Amino acid sequence: MKGLSIEVRVGLMILVAVAIAVAIYLTVGKVSLGSGYTIYVDFNNPGGVQKGAAVQVANVRVGQVDDIEYWGGRLDEKTNTRPIIRLKLNIEKKVQPTIHTDARFYVAQTSIVGESYIAIDPGDPEKPFLKNGAVVRGIDPPRMDLAFSMAFDLLGNINDLVRDNREELNGMLTSLANTFKSVDGLLTRNGDRIDRMMENVEDITVDGRATVKDVRGIIEGPHVKRSIKNADHVLDSVSKNIDPILADTRQITGKVNTTLDDVAGPSQRKQIQKIIANGEEITDKAKGLVSDATDITRRIHEGKGTVGAILMDEQLYDDIQEMVRDLKHNPWKLFWRE
Amino acid sequence: MTEAAAQTLDAATDEPPLPKRSALTDMLGELADLWRVTLDTLFYTFNHKREKGAVITQCYAIGNRSLFFMVVTMGFIGAIVVYQIGIQTARIIPDMSLVGATYVKLLIRDLAASVGAMPLATRVGAGIAAEIGSMVVTEQTDALRMSAADPVDYLVVPRFLASVLMGTSILLIGGAVAYFAGMLICNLSFDVNPYVYMNFSMVTSGDCILGFIKCLVYGGTIALVSSQRGLRTFGGSEGVGRATTEAVVGSLFAIITLNLIMSTIGNFLLPA
C-alpha cells in the first residue's frame, strides 16, 4: 500500500464502497440476474404478503412478488373470475418446467413471527406446466384475526355463563370434589384388589397377544394361504366365466318365456286358472270328507254308535261269535224259535 | 487577584469588549451564516473549477485517514448492538432466527448512517474546523480574499465534495463492518448460523434509498457545519480550540436533527 499514490488509495476505497452498495442492491433489491416469467395468483386475503416477498418451492427461493393488485371482485373477462387480490409473481425461467397446472400456491411464514411468503407445491409432473401469464387460484391462509375474534366471543360467553350460574357451578365443583374424594377412598381401600385386577388385565393382555400371534400364524400359514389362493383361483375362474354363464342364463330364461307363451296362450291360461280354482274347491271338499271320516273313526274307536259297539265291545263280539257258532250247529234257529 | 489589578488587565487589552447578545440571536445568526455558507458552497460546486488535486487530497484526508478509526468503531458498535439485541430477544422469545434480519434492516435504514456519522463527525469535523480555523486566525483567509479568491470556494468546496463522497463510502464500509461484526458475535454468543443471520428478506428498496440519502446528507453536513465554524474562528489558538469543539458539537447536533427530519419524512415516503 505504501507505494500507491493518493489517487489510487482513494479510488480503492471508493471501489470497496461501491462494491458494498451493489451487493446490497442485488441482495436487498432482490434483483435476479436471470430471466423470469410471470404467474398471477388470486387470493381473497393473502395475509401478510408484501410486495417483494419471496416465492419458494420446497424452501428454495425461486422468485418474488412483483406486484399486489386490488381487484375487489371485479370481473376478469380473460379468466371469467372475480378476484379480490391478485399477486403478480416473477419466477425464474429455469423453474417453469417444474411448476404444473395443478400446482398449489399458498401463503407461508418463515416463523411464527416471521415474514410471509408464497410457497408453491409444484403439482403432478405428468400434467403440463404453467405458461407465462397464467392465472391460478391460491389457497387463502387461515385468518388469525377471525380466530381471535371468535375466541374473544367464546371467552365472553364463558364469562357470562360463569357469572350467571355461579351457585350451580359451585355446587357442581363441590360434588366433583366429593366424587374425587370418594374415588380416592375407594382406590385406597381396594388398592390390593385393583393391583390384582391390573395383574389379571396384564395376564389377559399377554394371553391375548399370544392368541393374536397364534391366529396370525394360522392366517399366515400355508393352509390359509393355499385356501386364499384357491379362493382367488375360483373367483378368478368365476369372474372369467361369469359373463358367458350370465349370457347363457339370459338366453335360457328368454327361451323358457317364449315356450310358456307358445304352450299357454291367454285362453289356455284362463282354463288353467279355472282348473286350479276347481282343484282348490275339490281340495276343500276332500278336506271336509277326511274330517268326517276322522270323526267317524274316532267315534268307532270310542265305541260309540252301532259299528263302534260291534267293533269295540268285546262282550258283544263274544256274543255274536257264540251266536254264529250256535247257528252253525243249529241252523234251524234261523227259522224256528225255541 | 485584586479588583484593581483586574481592571488594569482589562484596560491593557486592545480588543473592544464583545457586544452582549442573547442565545436566541446567537443561534439565529449562526444558522443564517450556515445557510449562507451552504448556498455559497453549492454555487461554487457547480460554477467554478477546482484546483487540481484539491478534492483528492481532501478525500484522502477525510476518507482513507479515517478508515481504521471508523472500521474499529463501527465493528465494536455492531458487535455491541447485536449482543444487546440478542440478550433482549432471548428474554422475549428465545428464537434468534430473525435477529440478523431485523438488525440488517435497522442498520441499512438508520444505524449505519446515523451512528456511523457521529464518530466520523468527531474525526473529520474537528479536522476541518481546526484547519480552516487556523487559517482564519493566521489571516490566510484574508490573504485569499485579497487575491480575489473566496475562502468558501477555495477551502470549503473541496472539503464538502470530499466529505460527501468519502463520508458516504466510509459509512457504507462501516455499515458492512458492523454487520459482519454482528454476525460474528451472533454466532459466538448465541450460536446463530451465519446463513440464518444473513437474512435480507425484511429489507426493502426504500430502506436502502433512505440509508443512502442519509449517508450523502451527513457527509455534506459535517463538512458544511465544520467549515462554517472554522470560518467564524476568532481569538487565536484558544479560538481554534473553541471552533473545533463547536464544530464537533454542531455536527452531532445537525446529524441528530437531520436524522429526525429525514426519518419522519422517510416513514411517509419510504415506509419501513
Sum up the structure in keywords.
heterodimer, A: alpha/beta, seven-stranded mixed sheet, 8 helices, 7 strands, elongated, B: 272 residues
What is the element layout, followed by pairings?
The complex is a heterodimer of chains A (338) and B (272).
Chain A: H1 6-28, E1 36-43, E2 54-57, E3 60-70, E4 85-92, E5 104-109, E6 116-121, E7 134-137, H2 144-164, H3 166-189, H4 191-219, H5 222-263, H6 266-301, H7 305-312, H8 314-329
Parallel strand pairs in A: 1-7, 2-6
Antiparallel strand pairs in A: 1-4, 2-3, 3-4, 5-6
Chain B: H1 3-12, H2 23-47, H3 54-92, H4 99-137, H5 140-146, H6 151-190, H7 194-197, H8 205-231, H9 236-269
Structure notes:
The complex is a heterodimer of chains A (338) and B (272). Chain A has 338 residues and is an alpha/beta fold. Among the domains of chain A are: 1-31; 35-146, no CATH class; 302-338. Chain A is built from 8 helices and 7 strands. The mean pLDDT of chain A is 84. Chain B has 272 residues and is mostly helical. Chain B has one domain (51-269). Helix content of chain B is 83%, strand content 0%. Chain B contains 9 helices and no strands. The longest helix of chain B is centred in the middle third of the chain and has 40 residues, at 151-190. The chains are: A alpha/beta (338), B mainly alpha (272). The interface between A and B is medium-sized, with 26 and 31 residues.
